[in-house]
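Field reference: sequence -> structure
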Amino acid sequence: MLDGLIKGQVINIIIILVGIVGIIALLISNTVYSTLLKESKDVGFSESKLLKNIKLKYENCYKLELYIHEVEAFIDKNLYGKKIFKIPIYFWENIALETMYICMILGFLGSLINVTYYIQNNILPIINGLIPGIVGFTMATVLLIIKTFVAVETKKNVFYSNVKDYLQNILKNKLDQQSKKEGIYEDYKKMEEMAIESSKNKKDISNNKKDNKSFDNNTRHISNYDKKSKYKSKDIIEEDFIDDIINEIIG
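Structure field:
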């Protein structure tokens, strides 16, 4: 089995395949962050679903008074929910880095196995046993060069800075102003309602005064009427009494 493994250059093939996977992961990560970086230059008008989602969640948290103190953690949580080919973005980032170390480890182990096999079987030249190490080192170097050239980490950091700046310095100020305007409008509305209520109360008081005045006038009128009636009936009684006395004298 070991003989077939060495003669078939299986370790070298595995190293190359791992390296290719790492290159693909780097290119995918670069494409994603290049797009996000471009969109993050104007987050307010961005058509990116990720940025729209981040903006919407931040606004909702602000309105619910769930203030966000760790903005980077908030961005991380939303960013790492993004998937490429149903695989989270952070997985592609990790693959790009880990494949470089895997290539170096496989190259070292492959060289060790080959050299040991060559020595045990007196196969010359022994330097041929170092080929897996050379392949592993070469693939790791290629991955490092591509990683440095595409600068995924730098693009990621700039993306974070752009989004953080928008959330803290633009969107937050905008929400603060809206909140103040809404507060002023509510205060004005309350004052208007109080003024209307006060006006109604004044009208009610005025109406009550009029009713009381009318009631007093009616009471006075009734009182005067009673007095007149009383005097009138007294005069009638006195006249009747005098007539009776005169009639008795004549009769």
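Note: The first helix runs from residue 2 to 7.
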